[in-house]
Design a protein that fits this description.
With 429 residues, the chain is of the alpha/beta class. It has 13 helices and 13 strands. The strands form 2 sheets. The protein has an 11-stranded mixed sheet with strand order 1-3-2-6-8-7-12-13-11-9-10, sandwiched between helices. Strands 4-5 form a two-stranded antiparallel ribbon. The chain is globular, with a radius of gyration of 20 Å.
C-alpha cells in the first residue's frame, strides 16, 4: 500500500522509530494533494510552505510529523476562513480552535482546509466560491456533506486524518460515501470552541447537536486522534491497552436497526448491514432485532423548522429531554444501523435521508462509522455504530471488530482518480 494510504498510527510509529522522516511523509501527502487537486477539488487552501517548515523539526508527541486537514468552518490561526460564502472571502481566523491547538501540541502539522457547503451545513459539498467536491471512488458521485472536502482529502491519501463537524450527519455521511472510519463523539467530549456558522461562534448551548468529529482511514487512527483532542473530565478515556482484545465484545447488547421505516435501505446496503450484524455476533455480541425508541428525526425536523425564529419553544425542549431520557433507559450497549440508505448517489441526487444519523445528535450519543462493504458499482458502504454518552470506546471497539472482519478502508482505484472531472468543478483558489 502506498505511504499516503497507510494508517496514521502506522506512519506515526515509523516516524517515531526514525524509519521515516516527517519531511518525507509531509512531502508524500503534498504530492498527492497537488496531483489530485483538480480532480477532487477537496481543498480550499493549502499551507504548503508552513507545513514543510514544520516537518523539518516537528514537535514531539503522539502525532508528531503527521499532516492533518480541517473543514473550513473550524478556525486555524492565520488561515483563510471563508466557510464557502462570497461575503467572507479574504477572512482569516485570529486563533486556533481548541481541537486544532491540541493537534499541534501533539506534534501534528496543519496542512490545509477543506471544502464544505455554504456556512458549513448541508448534504452536498458545493458552494459558489470554491465549487463542488468530487468523490475519489467516482468523480461523478457525491461526497455528501457537510464535511465532504475533508472526506475526499483523507480517502484519496491527501491528508493523514482530518477534523469535520457534525450536526446531523456531516461527518458520518461523507465518511460513509468515501469509505472512511469516523466518529461523532459524545456531545461535549470534544470542545467546539472555534467552530463558526452564519450566526457566529457555535457553542454547546446555542447548538448542542453540533460536534467536532474525526475522519481517518482506520479506527485506530480515530481513537488516537480522539485521545488527543478530547476533554478528560467525565469521559472514559480510550484504554491504554488499545486496541481491545478479541473478547472485548463478548456479551455486548446490540440493537439492530436495519430499516427505520423512514429511509428504507437498498439491497446493497441491507446486505452490508446484515454482514456487520453477523460479524458482531461472531465476535460474541448479542444482536437483537429490536429497534431503539423513535422520534429523534422528527424532533430534528422541528429544530430545522425553527431556524430563523427567535427561540426554540419550551415544548420542543421538553420533548427533546423526554426523548433523551427514553434512550437513556434503552437496555442496549450499541445500535447498529445504516448511515444512509445507499452508497454515494451522483452529484445533485443526494436526498435528505438522514434519519439514521440525526437521532444521535439529538441524544448526544457517540456514533462511529466504518466501511463494511462495497456496492455493485464499486462504491464504499459503511455502517453506523451508536453508543450511549461517554461510551465512545464501545462504538470504536465494535467498529474495529467490523474493520478487521469486513475489510475497512480500501484506497480508491487509480483509474477513478485519473478520470476527467465533471465540468462544474472549479480550481483551487
Amino acid at each position: 500500500m502506498e505511504l499516503v494510504h497507510r494508517p496514521a498510527t502506522e506512519l506515526a510509529a515509523l516516524i517515531a522509530s526514525g524509519e521515516l522522516s516527517a519531511a518525507s511523509v509531509v512531502e508524500a501527502f503534498v504530492s498527492a494533494a497537488v496531483t489530485h487537486a483538480h480532480a477532487l477539488n477537496a481543498f480550499v487552501t493549502m499551507a504548503l510552505l508552513t507545513a514543510g517548515d514544520a516537518a523539518a523539526s516537528p514537535r514531539p508527541g503522539p502525532l508528531s510529523g503527521l499532516p492533518f486537514t480541517v473543514k473550513d468552518n473550524i478556525a486555524v490561526s492565520g488561515a483563510p476562513f471563508v466557510i464557502g460564502v462570497p461575503e467572507r472571502e479574504g477572512s482569516r481566523a485570529d486563533a486556533d480552535a481548541v481541537a486544532v491547538a491540541r493537534l499541534r501540541e501533539a506534534g501534528a502539522i496543519f496542512f490545509g482546509k477543506t471544502n464544505l457547503p455554504p456556512w458549513g451545513g448541508g448534504i452536498e459539498t458545493d458552494n459558489e466560491v470554491f465549487g463542488r467536491t468530487n468523490n475519489p471512488y467516482s468523480l461523478s458521485h457525491s461526497v455528501g456533506g457537510s464535511s465532504g472536502g475533508e472526506a475526499a482529502a483523507v480517502a484519496s491519501g491527501c491528508s493523514a486524518f482530518g477534523l469535520g463537524t457534525d450536526s446531523g450527519a456531516s461527518v458520518r455521511l461523507p465518511a460513509h460515501f468515501c469509505g472512511l472510519a469516523a466518529l461523532k463523539p459524545t456531545a461535549g467530549r470534544v470542545p467546539i470552541t472555534g467552530v463558526f456558522d452564519d450566526v457566529g461562534p457555535v457553542g454547546p448551548l446555542r447548538d448542542p447537536r453540533t460536534q467536532i468529529g474525526i475522519l481517518a482511514r482506520s479506527v485506530a487512527d480515530v481513537a488516537l486522534v480522539l485521545s488527543v483532542i478530547e476533554d478528560r473530565p467525565g469521559a472514559r478515556p480510550i484504554p491504554a491497552a488499545w486496541p481491545p482484545t478479541a473478547s472485548a465484545l463478548h456479551g455486548l447488547r446490540v440493537s439492530l436497526l436495519a430499516d427505520d421505516g423512514i429511509s428504507p435501505p437498498d439491497a446493497d446496503t441491507a446486505r452490508v448491514v446484515a454482514a456487520a450484524a453477523r460479524a458482531l455476533s461472531d465476535a460474541g455480541a448479542c444482536v437483537d432485532d429490536v429497534a431503539p425508541p423513535g422520534g429523534g428525526h422528527a424532533l430534528t425536523e422541528e429544530v430545522w423548522a425553527s431556524y430563523g425564529a427567535d427561540a426554540i419553544s419550551y415544548d420542543l425542549l421538553g420533548r427533546w429531554d423526554a426523548y433523551r431520557a427514553e434512550l437513556a433507559a434503552f437496555p442496549y450497549d450499541l445500535i447498529l444501523s445504516p448511515v444512509y440508505p445507499s452508497a454515494a448517489p451522483r452529484h445533485g441526487e443526494v436526498a435528505n435521508h438522514t434519519s439514521y444519523t440525526t437521532p444521535q445528535n439529538m441524544s448526544g450519543w457517540a456514533a462511529a462509522t466504518v466501511r463494511c462493504g462495497t456496492s455493485a458499482d464499486g462504491l464504499p458502504i459503511g455502517v453506523q455504530l451508536a453508543a450511549p454518552p461517554w461510551r465512545d470506546e464501545v462504538a470504536l471497539a465494535a467498529a474495529l471488530a467490523l474493520e478487521r472482519a469486513l475489510g475497512g478502508y480500501a484506497p480508491p482505484p487509480a483509474a477513478a482518480l485519473a478520470a476527467t472531472p465533471p465540468s462544474q468543478t472549479r480550481s483551487l483558489r
